Amino acid sequence: MYIMPHPSKKFMECLQYAAHKHRDQRRKDPQESPYVNHVINVSTILAVEAGIEDENVLMAALLHDVVEDTDASFADVEELFGGDICSLVREVTDDKTLEKQQRKRLQIANAAKTSSRAKLIKLADKLDNLRDLQINTPRGWTEERRVQYFVWAKQVVDQLRATNSILEEELDKIFKEQGLL
Prior knowledge:
The structure is a single chain. This protein is mainly α. It has helices at 9-21, 36-49, 55-62, 66-69, 74-81, 83-92, 100-111, 116-135, 143-158, 165-177. Helix 2 crosses helix 8 (116-135) and helix 3 crosses helix 8. The chain is globular.
């Protein structure tokens, strides 16, 4: 397990904020694991596996679903954690006013246009989701939907190439196992 040598006060406040905002949410896995585990995993993947030391990227990873999936606003994120982190969170947040298929299409269409720092978060997010999907079918999902998620995730990842070889290699292992490479 990765432990920062000296996590900053700001990082710990961010972790606490993410935990608080996601406190009542559960993943759709059979165990209904706490949702906050996902955002912690995304930040940890970046720090431990990808070697990312940019604390703002690691903090934005913790917050990457906070506006999309809780009552938090971009104004809240900016006020608490600053403009840089808010900008990263904004880049990786889907517009929930759009229907799901349109959001998924936009993720593919817009992925290549995002900053390299936001691309890191997107890659780690997809990696954590796909690792989970390899071992769990979410509640209410058919096998076809599970397979289609891998196909869609690869389309997004293909727009994020040349961002971080370590993350891309890990994702490619999964895509190869799924017969997508």
